[in-house]
Design brief:
Blueprint: E1 19-20, H1 37-44, H2 47-53, E2 58-64, E3 67-80, E4 95-106, H3 113-129, E5 137-145, E6 150-151, H4 153-158, E7 162-163, E8 176-182, H5 184-203
Parallel strand pairs: 4-5
Antiparallel strand pairs: 1-2, 2-3, 3-4, 5-6, 5-8, 7-8
Amino acid sequence: MVKKMSKFEGLTVSPSQVELWNPELPVSGQGFRCQRGEFVTYWKQGRIAREVRSHLCRCWILRYQESLVGYFTLLADKLTVQSPWLETEQVQYRTFPAIKIGLLATDKRVKGAGSCLVEWAIEYIVQTLSPVVGVRFLTVDALYDPDTGYDSSGFYQKLGFRLVNPDESLPPLHGYRTMYFDLKPLIDSWFSMIGARDEVEGSEPS
């Protein structure tokens, strides 16, 4: 018996393929196979579209031809902690500006799609948002499902995220564990790079 090939067989993805979603894009959720079925339902039943139209979030996608490979949403957030985190920077605040990954869903047949989307999101915030608005952290509520053993925190930890409360009792009260990624090193590096570039361009003879 000949094994039927997946439509995504051998597909590789990169951040350059990420697109801002809008209703005009010909992309279908038909056949979308995410490990979390509710994320498939959110797309097919129009939840994402409604939230985008209401300006509650923005959504970006990966697609192959007209098939959905993955999507994620970003929205404004704030990170509140129990004690001042930035005392070494002479900052006494306990609440910090952040951007949140609201939903992240990928087809389980496409290896690396989730990492690709998160890496793109980080680059976008650093290069596009941080020059125009104060933002220090990227946050996410990593799902934890004790009934199935599903725990997405490990995925985010591999990408550099840390748990806001690593001593939190499990299972968590709300079904997720809040995590954060400190954007400052990347933002500092980006500002340094574009500053150096501007100096070079400014020194060129007219």
